[in-house]
Design brief:
With about 500 residues, this protein is α+β, with helices and mostly antiparallel strands. The protein is built from seven helices and 28 strands. The strands form eight sheets. A four-stranded antiparallel β-sheet has the order 6-28-27-26, with helices on one face. It starts with a helix and ends with a strand.
Length: about 500
């Protein structure tokens, strides 16, 4: 209250026993407020007692006369207030603990919300990733099929072009003969000239007597094209576009390598060539027609080659030393801590969709994974009983394909065996195609016979491409199989490169 009110307050008889203190002392806690006042019945007496039954304060007289006679339970105010404060403090303590618990629960709700958000985001990411993988897989399969159709178109067009040119040549020849015969009517013909003219007439008559162009052969080209069909894939447990049927494969080129007993590895290049790594030095680059277009790294004894998505090339030499080169075959200052030849022996090399470089070792039966930055391997994959001689990666998944000569093994990203292929008495040499289908060359080495089959990425049989193709038997049973970007298939021995392509003729 203000000073004036305080003076009036203290001057009134009912307020004479009141105590007035500064408000600042109350707010600061220096002066605690009294919890009780005077007795309502006896204004001059303090309320020293508290009835737990009636829940009210009063003086001792009231307690004795009005409450104790009724059997009520009385407490001294000091004891009651102490108990009350203890109870309040206990409640406050419990309330504080409860609020902490609830606060922690609220924090946990947010933590769980964040975790659920992450889980659902990962689900969406997995869905998007799987979708993209299958879109890429289907797109690659579509392009592979279209490449086959394009190559078939070129072959059919070549046949028709030959027929067309022969027909044009026939008409041209007839026109010349007809012109010579007609010119003979413009001048008198005697003796030798008459004999020559008679001969021309006989030749024209003989030429006209030839059979007409064979429309049946012409229709035969169309009939062979009509036999080619697209078989749509109908299996529900695997997403695959389909395949072409009604045509065969045959050898397109048979190329002798410049140096015998020299091939050690082979892989396709991003620009449509086939890179053949040479044990005695260099990498030969061949076109899909089998033409040797370039030889690079002539001083490097090559054991394995792999191409990164940006065009850089990982090359491993015969001492198991891996180096990185630009797309122009210039060596980069990047080193990899690979196992030595004595330590791990040779093995395969492949590059996955994320540009991780996988290098396998026969002796230690394991695969090391490197990043393009070089240095130590970021992880090891143990092969558990199979020897990773040649190694290939899929383009849309983290899976790997390897061969130990007799068995083709499909591994997941952790090295766990998923599927295998094996044919008794045959050597197995696989390759992963652009659409993630797998082709396998089954070789009867002693007989020099090669068959090539196509499989799904889960190693389920699709169809046969080549059956018992006869090759020149090399000195050793070391072979490599790959697919060109344009769809042709390359099979390489230590001495020769064979290129297979679709064939129109039945």
């Amino acid at each position: 209250m203000c000073k004036s009110c305080e003076i009036n307050h203290l001057g009134w008889k009912p307020f004479l026993n009141h105590e007035v203190v500064p408000i600042g002392d109350v707010l600061s806690g220096k002066v605690p407020l009294r919890r009780r006042g005077k007795c309502k019945k006896h204004p001059n007496a303090d309320s020293d007692c508290f009835c737990t039954n009636c829940r009210e304060y009063f003086c001792l007289t009231c307690g004795t006369v009005d409450h104790m006679q009724k059997g009520h339970l009385l407490e001294k105010v000091a004891v009651h207030e102490e108990n009350l404060m203890t109870n309040i403090e206990e409640l406050q303590k419990k309330a504080k603990s409860k609020k902490t618990t609830i606060g922690n629960h609220i924090d946990n709700i947010q933590t769980q919300r964040n975790e659920i958000t992450t889980i659902l985001k990962n689900l969406n990411d997995d869905i998007d990733k799987t979708y993209e993988e299958y879109v890429n897989l289907l797109s690659a399969r579509r392009e592979a099929l279209k490449c086959q159709v394009q190559r078939l178109s070129e072959k059919f067009e070549k046949e028709l072009k030959v027929m067309e040119e022969e027909s044009h040549q026939t008409i041209s020849h007839m026109n010349k003969m007809e012109e010579l015969v007609a010119n003979g009517m413009k001048v008198p013909l005697e003796k030798d000239a008459l004999i020559a003219h008679d001969t021309l007439c006989e030749n024209l008559k003989s030429f006209l007597g030839r059979d007409d162009p064979d429309d049946q052969s012409l229709r035969g080209v169309t009939e062979r094209a009509q036999k080619i069909s697209f078989l749509r894939h109908i299996k529900v447990n695997e997403l695959r576009l389909g395949e072409l049927d009604g045509y065969t494969w045959d050898v397109k080129a048979d190329v002798e390598l410049p140096v015998e007993h020299n091939m050690y590895c082979m892989t396709r290049t991003p620009d449509g060539k086939m890179a053949v790594g040479l044990w005695k030095g260099g990498i030969n680059l061949y076109s899909p027609d089998g033409e040797l277009q370039q030889t690079v790294l002539k001083d490097v004894y090559v054991s394995e080659i792999g191409f990164l998505s940006d065009g850089r090339i990982a090359v491993c030499d015969t001492k198991n030393k891996m180096s990185l080169y630009t797309s122009q075959w210039e060596k980069l200052d990047v080193t990899f801590e690979t196992m030595s030849k004595d330590e791990g022996e040779y093995g395969g090399l492949t590059v996955d969709r994320d540009d991780n470089i996988y290098m396998s070792y026969w002796k230690s039966q394991k695969i090391q994974v490197f990043t393009p930055q070089g240095g130590k391997a970021v992880r090891d994959i143990m092969c558990n009983g199979y020897t990773p001689i040649q190694l290939f990666s899929f383009h849309t998944t983290g899976k790997l394909i390897l061969t130990d000569f007799s068995t083709v093994v499909c591994l997941d990203g952790n090295g766990k065996q998923e599927n295998i292929l094996k044919k008794e008495g045959m050597l197995a040499f696989p390759a992963v195609c652009r659409d993630d289908s797998v082709i396998v060359a089954w070789v009867k080495h002693e007989e020099g016979l090669v068959s090539i089959d196509r499989y799904t990425r889960d190693l389920e049989y699709m169809h046969n491409l080549i059956t018992d193709f006869k090759i020149i038997v090399p000195e050793t049973d070391w072979y490599y199989l790959q697919e060109f970007e344009s769809g042709e298939i390359a099979f390489c021995t230590r001495d020769r490169l064979y290129i297979f392509d679709v064939k129109c003729e039945v």
